[in-house]
Amino acid sequence: MKLVEPAKTIEIIKENNFAFQKKYGQNFLIDGRVLEKIVDAAQVSPEDFIIEIGPGIGTLTQALCERGAKVLAIEIDKKLIPILEDNLKGYENIEIINDDVMKLDLNRLIEEKNENRPVKIVANLPYYITTPIIMSLFEKNVPMISATLMVQKEVAQRMQAGPGSKAYGALSLAVQYYSVPEITANVPQNCFIPRPNVDSAIIRLNRRNEPPVRTDDEKLLFAVIRAAFCQRRKTLQNALSNSAELSVSKEAAANAIEKAQLPPLVRGEALRLEEFADLANILAKEKTGIGV
């Protein structure tokens, strides 16, 4: 029987006296149609090396293995390891690691175990740590071609949002700097045990080979973006000059905004990534008074 079947999931939980850990944000998928949507969105093939984050009882892992990919499953909850090993004992293309993905050197693991396969991340991510995991994958330059993730619907919308929308923010710009995001399906609450309080979505992040904008100082670019959305209802001039991270005077901020040919009272939520890059490049050239 497929692990995704509700009756099988409940049976495994009861047989192992498994108690869900709130601190790990555990919600097990029990809808086979959604499971297929994840694997299809990830375009899993026998040539792939898949890193699955948070496999739970192995529901998604089983589907990945059946597509023939080499799978490395990383599970933080040590109580799930014997359950995973038992549920997946018939598959030879799976390796299970009990560790915290935020503390692992994924680049080293990939180098040791990958065998030059295309690397893809596939995961039903815990809501509480979705953004840190995604940004860690990008910032540590994990050599993946894509990440196909089940996340909170609101977070997926933020990652795909554009200027002028309420969902648009620092996460939108960071994700779009590193990847091309695409929401492939929405997932209701009743597809999980236990049922979460919010709906979910499947999003695929296709990693860019090169950033879509030129930046003289990537660190400064993201500092400017964070400042702009830290106080998003303030004008960009005030947001930049109020940022302790930037240490830009109000006059310097106004001057940079003018050189970037932006309206004096513009807010950060109206700027495209290209405009943020232009502004950061101008600030980088000024240097004086900038403490990033």
Question: How would you describe what is shown here?
Answer:
The protein is α/β, with parallel strands linked by helices and 292 residues long. It has two domains: 6-207, Rossmann fold (3-Layer(aba) Sandwich), CATH 3.40.50; 218-286, rRNA adenine dimethylase, C-terminal domain (Helicase, Ruva Protein, domain 3). The chain is 39% helix and 17% strand. The chain contains twelve helices and nine strands. The strands form two sheets. The protein has a seven-stranded mixed β-sheet with strand order 4-3-2-5-6-9-7. Strands 1-8 form a two-stranded antiparallel sheet. Strand 3, helix 4 and strand 4 (94-98) form a beta-alpha-beta unit. Helix 2 crosses helix 3 (59-66), helix 9 (218-230) crosses helix 12 (273-286) and helix 11 crosses helix 12 (273-286). It is elongated, with a radius of gyration of 21 Å. The N and C termini lie far apart (56 Å). Residues 288-292 have low confidence and may be disordered.
Descriptive terms for the model:
single chain; 292 residues; alpha/beta; Rossmann fold; Helicase, Ruva Protein, domain 3; 2 domains; seven-stranded mixed β-sheet; two-stranded antiparallel ribbon; 12 helices; 39% helix; elongated; disordered C terminus
Please describe the topology of this protein.
Blueprint (H helix, E strand, L loop, with lengths): L5 H10 L12 E2 L2 H11 L6 E5 L5 H8 L3 E6 L5 H7 L6 E5 L7 H8 L5 E6 L5 H10 L6 E7 H8 L9 H9 E9 L4 E2 L6 E8 L10 H13 L5 H6 L8 H10 L13 H14 L6
Helix pairs in contact: 2-3, 6-8, 9-12, 11-12
